Amino acid sequence: MRVLTAKQIRKVEENAFASTYTEAQLMLSAGTACYRKIVKIFGDDIKTKRVAVVCGNGKNAGDGFVIAKLLCDIGADAYIVLADKEPEIAEPVKYFNFAIESDVKYINFTDDCLDCDIIVDCIFGIGFHGEPRSPFDKVFDAVNNSSAVVVSIDTPSGTNATDGSVVNAVKADYTIAISTLKFAHVLPPANAYCGKTYTVNIGIGEECYKENYAQTITKADIKKLFVKRDKNSNKGTFGHQLNICGSYLMPGAAVICAKAALKSGAGLVKCAFPKSIYPVMTAHMTQPLFKPLCENEEKTISMGALNDVFEELKWADSVVIGCGLGNNDDTQMIVDQVIKTSEVPVILDADGINAAAPFIDIIRSKNAPLIITPHPGEMARLIGEDIAYVQSHRAEVAKAFALENDVILVLKGANTIVTDGKEIYFNTTGNPGMAMGGTGDMLSGMIGSFVSQGMTPFDAAKSAVYIHGYIGDVCEQELSQRGMTVDDMLSIEGAVLSEFE
Predict the structure, then answer these.
(1) Rounded CA separation 179/181 (Å)
(2) Which helix (H) or strand (E) holds 200?
């Protein structure tokens, strides 16, 4: 699914006006589509609800006037609340007058006018930016302080559709995006204001979309990447994955990474780790191959293990390095040499990223495709900025870094970004219950597994990110956000993959 900026969607609509619709016709189509989605969300109960359709005086208000009229037509107790003044733009004026002539009630905003069950937010659309002026700031506060269920049309009023910034905005329970998603739906902090987001088709033809837009990762696209396995396959058919992970203080990261790789279909997984954690590794797993390596005083892999590492690289079809590795001179050397030497795709995570961050030329001297999977803090270290900067510029930072360094970047967080610097994808699966130690190790193991099985690195990253989040969503439904653990996610990983085979 496409994700557009405000400028891009305006251009698409201009293309539609030039070939198919008048602006008034498109406004009627948008309002009608949103009305139908509202009815679908609430079902027949909508007819028993009191619904305040709160409208500004711009074009988004026109959608609201259509919605209010159609809700009244089916018997809902719907009324229009004018946040500021009556509309002045021709198309919204047309539908405002039509609603009033159809006996839809309207009132001017007051502090007590939102005594209702449902609020439909049509105050601002994609053109909003900055901070709301009076009286809109008071209207936003009144909506947010109401006990009503809030449905925002297109984007929650007060959010910036293009960069996701927010000063003060309506916090919606549901958002109905018109035609496509906007960046406000996938970028923080605006994505936290959207609630559950739906997209409605208002009839704009494919010929009106003429650019290379950002996209979301969809289940249908991922399912196409999973080809049927050959009956005559053997363990070598599905690849060799080498995990260079773990240390005395963080053996669990290596275990999680390896389990995730095995449960997502890798034919053979070999775990290379400092020898002191051998008892932990073998106590938790029996299926992988084990390669204990010499270690330093910190009980991380020693640079003295490099010759063994080089030999294992010859065996591998994919390499995951960094999960629980530790960060010191030895591990920095190991990371440096793996990136420079490996002839198969490398997935760089956690301490692997930390090892490379002070020496960014390591990344640029790679010998094979490189997938980097930072969380915002690690991304900040990679570019020499703070976390706040990364979070407020997620799309730009990710795309620029991937392009400049010729890597595939997986910028983790809500709506994880996957980009190669040219294409950019946002993930829509996952939930806050996954914000815990170990989920990143699981993701890296899955990416490596899909690479070893023959996916391109970009497809492997997209697939793993989507399915990883999907697994988290299943856990949330079966357990809870607070109660789910990485072990719970691993336990259902194989079953969830049945939906993609």
Answers:
(1) 7
(2) strand 196-200
3 state DSSP class of 295: strand
* Cα separation, 289 vs 68, whole angstroms: 64
Q: How many CB atoms lie within 10 A of CB 43?
A: 8
Written as one letter, the residue type at 399 is K
Residue 148 parent element (H or E)? none
State the maximum Cα–Cα separation within the chain, in Å, rounded to a whole number. Answer: 84
Q: Beta strand pairing status for 408-411 and 370-372?
A: parallel
What pLDDT score was predicted for residue 294? 98
Distances (CA, A) of 243 to 192, 313, 315: 35, 10, 12
Q: What is the pTM of this model?
A: 0.95
Instruction: Enumerate residues 6+ apart whose C-beta is below 8 A from 124.
Output: 56, 58, 60, 132, 136, 155, 157, 158
Number of helices (H), then strands (E), belonging to the chain: the values are: 18, 19
Phi/psi for 233 (5° steps) reads: -70, 160
Q: Is the distance from CB of 377 to CB of 346 less than 8 angstroms?
A: no
Strand ranges in 56-104 using DSSP code E only, listed in sequence order:
77-82
422: how many CB neighbours lie within 10 A of its CB?
10
Query: Are β-strands 346-348 and 318-321 bridged in parallel, bridged antiparallel, or unpaired?
Result: parallel
Mean pLDDT of 327-338: 97
Q: Are 27 and 62 spatial neighbours (Cβ–Cβ below 8 Å)?
A: yes
pLDDT band at residue 217 under the 50/70/90 scheme: very high
Q: What CA–CA distance (Å, rounded) separates 36 from 27?
A: 14
Using one digit for the tens of pLDDT, what is the confidence trace for 226-249? 999 989 999 889 999 999 999 999
- CA torsion 425-428-431-434 (nearest 10°) is -40
| Count of CB atoms situated within 10 Å of the CB of 225 | 15
- Cβ–Cβ contacts within 10 Å for residue 214, how many? 23
What percent of the chain has a predicted confidence (pLDDT) above 70? 100
Find out whether 106 and 100 touch, Cβ atoms under 8 Å. yes
